[in-house]
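Tutorial handout. Part one gives the primary structure; part two gives the three-dimensional structure as tokens.
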Amino acid sequence: MDHLSSNQSLGLSTEQTEKVLQFQELTAIEDLTICRDVLQRHQWNLEVAVQEQLNIREGRPTVYASESRPPAIVSDHLGQHFYYSPPTDGSGSGFRGILKTVINFMLNMCYNTVITLLQLGRRLLGIELRPRSNPVQDVMDFIKMYEDKYSTEHPVFYQGTFSQVLNDAKRELRFLLIYLHDTSATDTDLFCTGSLGNQEVMRYINQTFLFWSCSADSDEGKKTANAVKASHFPFLAILVLKENRMTIVGRIEGYSDSSLLKQRLTSIVNEYEINLVSARADRFEASINRSLRCQQDEAFEESLRADQEKERRREEERMAKEAEIRQIEEERLAEEARREQFAQEKINSLYKIPAEPDALHPDAVHVVFKLPCGSRLERRFLKTHSLESIFYFVFCNPNAPDCFEITTNFPKRVLKCRRENNEIIETLEQAGLKNKEVLFINDLDA
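Part two.
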């Protein structure tokens, strides 16, 4: 309801609104404004608008693309079927008919020569000529004229340019049937009502061909007539992909009744169906080869990725091993530096150890130190010496641990031998050490 109200607010009728919604559903274009603009550009013809969008999506040129010249096609002069029927009023028979044919042939030769020279001169001079009319509009005008004058029951007309239908027939591997309409030809009306309007003929054409038609009087029709060398009307040309080129393999000029027309079309199709079968087989083989190459490429890429992953892992392992070696070396060097620092610190701390008093000194305290390694140290200190003195005595000994604490035997207590936060270190006497004492050295790193 929101879509309907938004379109009605733009001044669209109910019928136009329904076409906008149908176009949106068929093309999946979300913006309703774009849908409206496309339909307006095509005079609200839903089929043509959808055809243009499908052409664009499938990589074809837009149906309103300008074309400076008709597409190149090949005529199989030796192998093609050629059927000619003179006009039913007898104007094409006898001397008069021969003379008319010769004159038409000469006129066509002159016309083609002049057009070729003009196109060559235009290309040499770099002049770009704008088309006088829209090629798709020429086709749509013919379809409208045909339905208004004859019947809406007819083979399905291709709604696009001659170039586009050639591309589609080549891509889809279909026979292409070209009909050029000349209103001045004697048997045109009879052919349209009696032959193209026949149900069997319509069914056969729809099942077998892409059917493209245009008036020979329009610009698009004239360019097509020049490309297929049409001389007598009604004119039909059958094209098929042969040796990878769209080739004219059959011509039907003049009037053919419905049964004769179907017979002639069937004869041409039966002979050249092998070309489409061969082309389909070639495309299938090419598709299989592309699929195999794609699978091989995927397998190669997968193998390459696996090799790259293995190489990446090996590189990571190598780098990790090198990092581990560097870390071990750094730790070793750091340990050596720490030991050298400790050794130097022990050397520098020797002056902090007071001289050992005489054994008979009344304030002498004999201290025995038991190290973690089992060895013993003995030394005398004065009661007035600080506990820091016994610490440096142990610290400077080579057998002492790097980080240790000194404890008494009983009661067990840790002696504060290092200065922390500007604390005053106790003397041996203040710490309760007198006469002879046994102290234990505990390794804090053990």
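Part three, for discussion. The domain at 67-287 is CATH 3.40.30.10 (Glutaredoxin). Residues 58-70 have pLDDT under 50 and may be disordered.
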